[in-house]
Amino acid sequence: MQVRRDSVRSGDGTRIDWWQTGEADKPAILIINGAGGSESLWSELREELGDAFRFVSWDLRGLYRSAPPERDEALSLYHHAEDAIMVMDAADVERAFILTWSTGVEIASELYAWNADRCAGICAVNPTTAAIVLRQLGDADDSPLAWFADRVPFKKRRVLQAAPLLRPGENAVNLLRKLGILSPAIDHARVIELWEDLEKLNIDVVVRTLRTFAGESGRARPNFDLPMLSVRGKRDMFAGELGGMDLYDRCSDREALEIPLAGHLIPAEFSEYLSLKLESFFVHRLPDLW
């Protein structure tokens, strides 16, 4: 399915690159990636649901094709939610079903807080928080990765910046599976395809974005009064006991699914399973959208 790209200027002047697939008269699904998520993460799902839906999304500010803002304050959740509205307006989408991945659930929560009327419902895939991701990646001083990084002749930031350049072999993929980043269900070729996206990623902006998000945790949020589906991987190292559950706890019409073998990349690992679950969710919870 052809991906059509364009760009738009957000409220602070930052250039945001956005993309869409599908026909304009189809119901819209707005994909909100977490920090580091790419368009190709959703390629299988788009093929499976593309006949019935239109997909719209964008590269988060400072990542992939989108320009970075001039100041770190503009990496806030509010600015990312504003980007979502600007993209929806550019795509002529008045209301959309929100499909998030990873820390994208935090952007979705901010979007709903300011523009609830633009949201038809939400599916949070691998929901987590920036604070949990930073802790698991070793940003905290007491984390296992920080302990290791302090004992090798590299600074943590250098390790993070060099990591995308190391193309994973079979042993590295197996390690990522054991850590819960990848599922046993995903093959090596697909891992390499996703890794090629990672090679284009500005790790510094990712870390700054996550730190900005984490600094905004704890703010009061409105209850979420739309149907919500949460899809989590049991092997996901970023899930945590409370990962992404704040929005879920504030939702009265909610449904949760846990995939036993899934890691943190469910859209690529179990796309067919996810698409079937979404179809069922639309039929039973959002028949007007379906």
Task: Describe it.
The structure is a single chain. The protein has 290 residues and is an alpha/beta fold. It is globular. The two termini are 20 Å apart. The protein is 39% helix and 17% strand. Residues 142-165 have low confidence and may be disordered. Strands 1-2-4-3-5-6-7-8 form an eight-stranded mixed beta sheet, with helices on both faces. Helix 4 crosses helix 9 (203-215).
How many beta-strand runs? 8
Task: Please tell me how large the radius of gyration is.
Answer: 18 Å
**How is the largest sheet built, in terms of strand order?**
1-2-4-3-5-6-7-8
Distance between the termini: 20 Å
Instruction: Indicate the percent of residues in helices.
Output: 25-40%
Biggest pleated-sheet summary: 8 strands, mixed
Quote the beta fraction: 15-25%
Query: Can you tell me the CATH superfamily?
Result: Alpha/Beta hydrolase fold, catalytic domain
Count of the domains? 1
- How many DSSP helices? 12
Low-confidence sequence ranges: 142-165
What is the structural class? alpha/beta
Tell me the overall shape. globular
Task: Give me the strand/helix succession.
Answer: EEEHEHEHEHHHHHHEHEHH
Under the CATH scheme, which class? Alpha Beta
Average of per-residue pLDDT values: 85
Which CATH architecture is right? 3-Layer(aba) Sandwich
* Fold-level CATH name: Rossmann fold
